[in-house]
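Sequence, please.
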């Protein structure tokens, strides 16, 4: 009986060993086939790693203000008889914008011009008579006073006409017209807004602990969502003499040339000021980084185009991140070609085809 069970047990062991051996053989064949299987190359987009120096910076909320900006208003009452501008157009200093009814003042000016001519003639005659002892000193003084009065009256007429002929006080761009032909306007009635775009001020505040880093001439960069990632560059031109006792901030003003007039008064954005010493490293787009708790990696393209390119996974250390870029201080070298799109299909050693039309 014992022999029978022993034989059965031996046969069972032999059967299990045969099954395991067959399975192992199949697995080895599958692994062999996989090792020699060729995968199609993955299309990726790349960027070249560049050596850069990044300065530490501080960013804060900023707003734009025109160097010259005002709302043109009427100074005296009258009916609008001429509108000499178009909304939204540039204008030169001294250009006529609006003319109010000046008929009464013109008539008064003509009358005062006639009085002035008579006063001059009278004074000339009085001086001749006085020289000939034919008139009194009082008469001569009266003639001189009449001339001065006539001149003052004419100057007043001209001042009133200047107020009725509303002109641009400086070069700038006009806003939207707020009056109509024939409209009666009172003193203070808005006519049109006038703003000067070039140059333009960027105003912001910084904490008092940054005061040591502030100086006239320091570079300031301005970003606004109106222009995406575009950075505008200007320089600090004014620093408040004191710190605000409520906020403990210091007010700063930078001036930007704004020659293309893209920046407009009232625009909101971020001012960035470089402070301290810079840090050297390798700059790449942030889409090149595969972040992981086990270490951040980058795929570097190896080989030449047309000769079978492949990728190598490289562990890197990210020192700083800023504006869609990262600064790497370990793992990459200048000139390395890194993958910035298409990494989700990659593995170490995978073949690739570079096509920079593939966007991250």
């Amino acid at each position: 009986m014992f022999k029978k069970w022993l034989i059965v047990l031996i046969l069972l062991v032999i059967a299990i060993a045969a099954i395991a051996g067959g399975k192992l053989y199949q697995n080895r064949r599958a692994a062999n086939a996989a090792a020699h299987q060729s995968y199609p190359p993955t299309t990726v987009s790349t960027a070249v790693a560049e050596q850069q120096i990044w300065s530490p910076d501080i960013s804060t909320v900023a707003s734009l203000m025109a160097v010259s900006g005002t709302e043109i208003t009427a100074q005296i009452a009258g009916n609008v008889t001429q509108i000499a501008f178009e909304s939204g157009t540039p204008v030169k200093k001294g250009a006529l914008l609006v003319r109010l009814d000046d008929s009464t003042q013109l008539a008064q000016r003509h009358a005062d011009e006639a009085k002035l001519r008579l006063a001059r003639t009278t004074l000339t005659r009085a001086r001749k008579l006085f020289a000939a002892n034919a008139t009194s000193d009082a008469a001569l003084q009266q003639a001189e006073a009449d001339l001065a009065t006539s001149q003052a009256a004419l100057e007043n007429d001209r001042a009133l006409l200047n107020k009725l002929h509303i002109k641009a006080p400086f070069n700038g761009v006009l806003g939207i017209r707020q009056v109509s032909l024939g409209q009666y306007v009172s003193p203070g009635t808005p006519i049109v807004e006038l703003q000067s775009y070039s140059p333009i001020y960027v105003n912001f505040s910084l904490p008092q602990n940054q005061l040591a880093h502030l100086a006239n001439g320091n570079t300031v960069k301005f970003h606004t969502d109106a222009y995406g990632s575009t950075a505008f560059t200007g320089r600090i031109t004014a620093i408040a003499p004191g710190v605000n006792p409520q906020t403990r901030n210091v007010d700063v003003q930078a001036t930007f040339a704004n020659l293309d007039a893209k920046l407009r008064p009232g625009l909101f954005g971020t001012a960035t000021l470089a402070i301290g010493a810079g840090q050297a490293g390798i700059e790449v787009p942030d889409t090149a980084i595969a972040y992981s708790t086990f270490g951040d990696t980058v795929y570097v393209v190896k080989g030449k185009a047309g000769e079978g390119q492949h990728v190598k996974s490289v562990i890197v250390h990210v020192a700083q991140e800023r504006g869609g870029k990262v600064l790497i201080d370990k793992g990459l070298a200048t000139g390395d070609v890194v993958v910035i799109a298409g990494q989700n299909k990659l593995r170490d050693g995978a073949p690739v085809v570079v096509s920079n039309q593939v966007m991250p």
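The longest helix spans residues 2-36.
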